[in-house]
C-alpha cells in the first residue's frame, strides 16, 4: 500500500483544487431554482469519475435530480463494492450567520469551510480520489461501482425507483458509504445504527384572512395559538411522545446492552459548552447517548405564521404552519408513524380551525450486524490508519435510503464516515478537516484490500 | 346646513381625487425604509389643511415621525374641537394576497380599495373636508384644531411627549376621532369603550446554532418546541389567561349590564360565514360581544423559527420567536400586565433554554361616559344623517393614545367612526365604502353645530 500512500501525498494539492470546484456548485436540492446547478454538478462528477479511471460513467435522469453512475469492472469473478454518496447539499439560510460565502471554499484552521465540505461532497469525493489512487497505482483489488444521487437531503425520492429499475447494473457484494461522523478524531468509529425519519408538515387555517386582533381577539380561534397547543401536546412532561401507538414495537435495551452502549466516551460538560446551553433536555430515564442512538424523538424543524417583520402588527393570522419531524428506531415503520401523527393531530385539533397534515418524506431505521465480513474489513482498515480499533456507533441521524438498499438490492451497507460533530453539517459555517479528508482517502484502499482478501 | 350639503355634493369628485393622492403615499410606520414617505405624507397633509381653510398648519418634528398640527381660531370665547387622526398605515404583507396594488386606490363595488382607505387616511380626511365645507360656506360654529400623527400603528410612541410639550396649544373642549367602525350600515353606533393593549416579543434561544435534528434530536431542548409549550400554557382549556394576577382589577358585569350589553345585534351564523370558520372559540361563559367588548384576550400575532422554505430541512433551530399581544379592559394597567407576562414566561421557561421577553408597546383601556354633552351631540348628529339613533358600542380594538389624552390634556374623546367590519383594516384588500366616506363628511358638521349650541 506504499505506492497508494505516495500517490495521495503527491496529488494532495490537485485533489483539493478539484474538491473546491465541486463545492462551488450551489447544488441545493430543496430549492427548485437550483435545478440547473444540480445538472451541472452531476455532469462535473461524471467527468471526474472518468478522469479517475472509470470505464464508464453516466448522468442518468430520474423524475427528480439525476443519479451519477460509474463503474470499473476488472474481473467479474472478483467481489464488487458499490459506493454510495450524494452531491446535493442543504439550504444555506440563515445566510447572514455565515462567516464566509457558503459556496466559496476557504481553508482556515486546517479546515475547509463551505456548504457541503463534509456533507456529502467532501466525503463522497474521498471515494473518487481513493479509487483514482488505486487505479493509477495498479492496486485496485476488485470491481467498483459508484452511485451518487442528488436528492438525499430531500428524502432520495427518485433513487428508490432508480434502484428498482437498475437492480442488475447495481449488483454488488457490499455498499460503502461515507456520510456519517466519527465519535471523535481520537475515538474512531463505524456507524452501525441509523434512526429512521418521518417528516411532516402541519398547516392550521382559521379565518379566511388575517384579522384585526382587537376587533376579533378573544372571540375567534387564533391558528398560531392553536398550532402551539397542538405541538405542545405532542410531548409530555417526561419528554415522551404522546401520539397513540408511537412506541409500539420499540424494543427496550437489556441492562447489559445499556452498559455496553454507554461505553462510548461522552463528556456532558463539554457537550453543553459546545452548544452553549445550561441544561440538556430529553426523555426521562435515558442517557444522552441512548436518547440519540436508540430512542425516537420529535422536533419542530420550522414554524411560521402571522407578522414576523420589524415592529408590531396587531393581527390574528389566518394561517400558521410547522414542519415537524420524528426520528425513529428499529421496530417503527416510518409510513405508519406518519399515519398515526396525522390521525392524532386531526383528532386533537379543535373544530374552530381546519388542519392539513402531510408527510413530506421519510425512511426506515437501519442496523449493520457486527459479524458481517465487510464490517470486520472496515474495522481493520480504520485500525490501520488511526492506530486504534474503531467503536461501533449508533447515530441519531437518518439516511433513509440505506434500509431501502437492503430491501431493493439485497445488499448491506457499511457506514464508514470520517466527519466530526464540529463540522456543523446542516448549519451555517459547515466545515471539514483537511486531516479528515486525507485520512479518509488513505483508509478506503485498506478497506478494499481487506474486503477482497476475505471474500 | 343646506349649503354644507350642497358644497359637499358639488365637490365630491375633487374630494376623492385628493384622497387618492393621500392614499398613494406608502406611509408604513412599522418599516423604517418608509421614513421618507412619512415626511412626504405629513407635508401633503399640512398643505391640505391650509387649502381647506386653516389659519396655521405645521409639520412638527418628534423623535419619530412628525405630527401635523393645524388650527382655525374664529373666536376664543367659543368652544374648541380638537380633531385627532393618523396618517400612518399598517404593513401590506402578505402582498400576494392583494387583488390590486396596495398603494394604488381603485373604485370597485362602490368602495375604495387601498391600504389606509379606511384606517385611518380615509376617516381622517373626512374631517379635513368637513372642515373645508364649513369654512367655505361660512357655517363653522367654533374653533377647530387638528393633530394628525404618524405612529398610531406602532404605538404612538412620540405623541405622548409631544402632547405634554404642547398642552397649551392643544387646549380644547373635546377631542373628536374617526378611527373606529359602525356596528353595521343599518346599525349606526358610537364607540364608548376601547380595550387596552400590551404587545410583547418573546425570543427563545437554545443551542448556539441550528443543529442536525438527527444527531441531536431527543437530547437537546428545541427552542421551537419550547416556545410552543410556553404559548400553549398561557391559556387554559376554558380560554382563560393563566398569567398570575392577569385578571386582578377586572370587573365582572352585573346581570343587568350584561343584558343591556348584549342588545347590540349579533348574528352568529353570518359572523362565522364571513370568516369561513365552523366554530367560534373564546373564554367560557361569555358571549362573542362580551369576549371582544369587555373581556381581555391574548393572541399570537406572529411566530417564526427554523426552516420555513420549500421542502424539508432537518434541523433543530437555534432560536424561535413570537409576537404576542394582550387586549386589556378597564382595571388592567398595560405596563403592569407586561411585567406580569415577562415574569411568568421567565418563571415557566425550562433551564435548557434562554428567554428574552420585551414589551414592544401598549396603552390603557378607555371609556366614554354616555352623559357627556359631546356624546349627546354625536348621537344627535348621527341620528340626523342615518335616521336612526346610534347605539353605544364597546369595541375590542385599542387606540392607546385616547386614554393618554385624558391623562395629559384633561380632555375626553368622542369616537365617531364610520368604518365597517368588512373594510378589512390591517388585512390585505383593505377598503372603505364611498357611502361611508361621504356620510362621514356630511355628519361631522352636525356634530359641530349641536356641540356648539349645547356649550
Q: Which CATH C-level class of the largest domain in chain A is it?
A: Alpha Beta
**Percent in helix of chain A:** 25-40%
Number of self-contained structural domains of chain A: 2
Low-confidence stretches of chain A: none
C-alpha end-to-end distance of chain A: 19 Å
What is the largest interface, and how many residues per chain? A-B, 102 and 102 residues
Give, in spatial order, the strands making up the sheet with the most strands of chain A.
Answer: 1-2-6-3-7-17
Describe what you observe in this structure:
2 copies of one chain form a homodimer. With 455 residues, chain A is an alpha+beta fold. Chain A folds into 2 domains: 2-194 and 365-454, Zn peptidases (Aminopeptidase, 3-Layer(aba) Sandwich); 196-250 and 296-363, Alpha-Beta Plaits (2-Layer Sandwich), CATH 3.30.70. The first copy, chain A, is 35% helix and 21% strand. Chain A has 13 helices and 18 strands. The first copy, chain A, has helices spanning 2-23, 35-52, 121-136, 157-165, 213-216, 223-232, 255-261, 268-275, 288-293, 334-348, 373-386, 400-409, 434-454, and strands at residues 56-60, 67-72, 80-86, 106-108, 111-113, 143-149, 174-177, 189-194, 196-205, 211-212, 297-306, 315-316, 319-328, 354-363, 366-367, 391-394, 413-415, 431-433. In chain A, the strands form 5 sheets. Chain A has a 6-stranded mixed sheet with strand order 1-2-6-3-7-17, with helices on both faces. In chain A, strands 11-13-9-14 form a 4-stranded antiparallel sheet. Chain A has a 3-stranded antiparallel sheet with strand order 4-5-18. In chain A, a hairpin with a 2-residue loop joins strand 4 (106-108) and strand 5 (111-113). In chain A, helix 1 (2-23) packs across helix 13 (434-454), helix 4 runs parallel beside helix 12 and helix 11 crosses helix 13. Chain A is globular. The model of chain A has no long low-confidence stretch (mean pLDDT 95). At the A-B interface, strand 10, helix 5, helix 6, helix 9 and strand 11 of A face strand 10, helix 5, helix 6, helix 9 and strand 11 of B. Strand 11 of chain A pairs antiparallel with strand 11 of chain B.
Amino acid at each position: 500500500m506504499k505506492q497508494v500512500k505516495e500517490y495521495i501525498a503527491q496529488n494532495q494539492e490537485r485533489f483539493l483544487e478539484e474538491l473546491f470546484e465541486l463545492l462551488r456548485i450551489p447544488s441545493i436540492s430543496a430549492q427548485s431554482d437550483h435545478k440547473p446547478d444540480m445538472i451541472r454538478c452531476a455532469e462535473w462528477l461524471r467527468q471526474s469519475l472518468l478522469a479517475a479511471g472509470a470505464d464508464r460513467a453516466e448522468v442518468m435522469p430520474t423524475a427528480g435530480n439525476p443519479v451519477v453512475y460509474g463503474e470499473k469492472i476488472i474481473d467479474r469473478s472478483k467481489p464488487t463494492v458499490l459506493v454510495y454518496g450524494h452531491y446535493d447539499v442543504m439550504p444555506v439560510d440563515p445566510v447572514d450567520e455565515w462567516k464566509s460565502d457558503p459556496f466559496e471554499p476557504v481553508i482556515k484552521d486546517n479546515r475547509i469551510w463551505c456548504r457541503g465540505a463534509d456533507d456529502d461532497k467532501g466525503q463522497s469525493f474521498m471515494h473518487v480520489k481513493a479509487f483514482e489512487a488505486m487505479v493509477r497505482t495498479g492496486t485496485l483489488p476488485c470491481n467498483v461501482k459508484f452511485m451518487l444521487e442528488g436528492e438525499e437531503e430531500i428524502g432520495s425520492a427518485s433513487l428508490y425507483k432508480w434502484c428498482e429499475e437498475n437492480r442488475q447494473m447495481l449488483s454488488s457484494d457490499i455498499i460503502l458509504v461515507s456520510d456519517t461522523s466519527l465519535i471523535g478524531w481520537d475515538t474512531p468509529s463505524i456507524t452501525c445504527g441509523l434512526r429512521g425519519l418521518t417528516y411532516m408538515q402541519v398547516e392550521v387555517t382559521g379565518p379566511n384572512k388575517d384579522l384585526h386582533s382587537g376587533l376579533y381577539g378573544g372571540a375567534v380561534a387564533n391558528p398560531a395559538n392553536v398550532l402551539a397547543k397542538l405541538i405542545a401536546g405532542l410531548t409530555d412532561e417526561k419528554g415522551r411522545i404522546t401520539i397513540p401507538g408511537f412506541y409500539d414495537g420499540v424494543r427496550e435495551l437489556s441492562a447489559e446492552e445499556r452498559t455496553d452502549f454507554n461505553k462510548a466516551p461522552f463528556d456532558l460538560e463539554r457537550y453543553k459548552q459546545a452548544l452553549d446551553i445550561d441544561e440538556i433536555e430529553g426523555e426521562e430515564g435515558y442517557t444522552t447517548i441512548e436518547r440519540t442512538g436508540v430512542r425516537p424523538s420529535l422536533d419542530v424543524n420550522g414554524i411560521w405564521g402571522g407578522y414576523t417583520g420589524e415592529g408590531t402588527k396587531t393581527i390574528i393570522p389566518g394561517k400558521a404552519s410547522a414542519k415537524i419531524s420524528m426520528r425513529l428506531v428499529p421496530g417503527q415503520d416510518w409510513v405508519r408513524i406518519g399515519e398515526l401523527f396525522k390521525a392524532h393531530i386531526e383528532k386533537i385539533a379543535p373544530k374552530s380551525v381546519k388542519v392539513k397534515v402531510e408527510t413530506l418524506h421519510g425512511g426506515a431505521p437501519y442496523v449493520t450486524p457486527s459479524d458481517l465480513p465487510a464490517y470486520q474489513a472496515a474495522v481493520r482498515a480504520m485500525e490501520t490508519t488511526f492506530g486504534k480499533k474503531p467503536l461501533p456507533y449508533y447515530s441519531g441521524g437518518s439516511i433513509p435510503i440505506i434500509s431501502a438498499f437492503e430491501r431493493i438490492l439485497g445488499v448491506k451497507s457499511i457506514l464508514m464516515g470520517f466527519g466530526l460533530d464540529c463540522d456543523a453539517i446542516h448549519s451555517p459555517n459547515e466545515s471539514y478537516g483537511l486531516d479528515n479528508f486525507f485520512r479518509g482517502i488513505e483508509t478506503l484502499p485498506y478497506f478494499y484490500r481487506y474486503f477482497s482478501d476475505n471474500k
